[in-house]
Amino acid sequence: MTLPADVDLHARPAAQFVRAAMAFGARVQVAAGEREVDAKSLLSVLSLGAKGGTTLRLTAEGDDAAQAVEQLATLVAGLTE
After folding, report:
1. Which residues contact 43 (CB under 8 A, 6 or more apart)?
2. Which residues are catalytic?
3. What values do phi and psi take at 56, rounded to 5?
4. Residues 22 and 40 sit within 8 Å (Cβ to Cβ)
5. Full-prediction pTM beyond 0.90?
6. Nearest CA among 27, 50, 55 for reference residue 39
7. DSSP-assigned beta bridge partners for residue 38
8. Which end of the chain is more exposed for a tag (fewer CB within 10 A), N or C?
9. CA distances from 69 to 42, 47, 59 (A)
10. How far apart are CA 61 and CA 27, in angstroms?
């Protein structure tokens, strides 16, 4: 999935993403480039420094992993400033 071109993953959208990730029991990771972090940690997500147009990769492990990836991908696609 790719961040919308006009959205950087700074504090507000990152917090929205992390809150959504925390709703799942699955272990969720998000990656940008070579760096992969815990999607439930705001500081970790912010450390990715993802800018608009950056490709993000989501992975999840656990009972609700598929649902987590699907819903988080949808959330990212709909992020706005």
Report:
1. none
2. 10
3. -110, 145
4. yes
5. yes
6. 27
7. 29
8. C
9. 17, 20, 7
10. 5
